[in-house]
Amino acid sequence: MRRVYVSLELEGEEEKLEALRGALEPEVLSPPGEKGEARVEVRGGRLVVEMWSDSIGGARALINSYLYLLASAMNSLEEVERA
After folding, report:
1. DSSP assignment string, 9-60
2. pTM score, two decimals?
């Protein structure tokens, strides 16, 4: 069976990227359900989120989950910066 691979990359300041990585780490360590698997790391000034799934539907679910978590974490960082 073929696996679906997706990679998301986000450029930014190292400190912010590490904060975002930390926000995503619990999802990587304890993923809900059996959608697939993921890895999150900061390398070369980029946050890299790599995801693998056995199906297109599973890949879509992973992408949606990680984009939602990233958006929430980024909004939180912006609020902290404004305070």
Report:
1. EEE--HHHHHHHHHHHHHHHHS-STTS-EEEEEEETTEEEEEEEESSHHHHH
2. 0.87
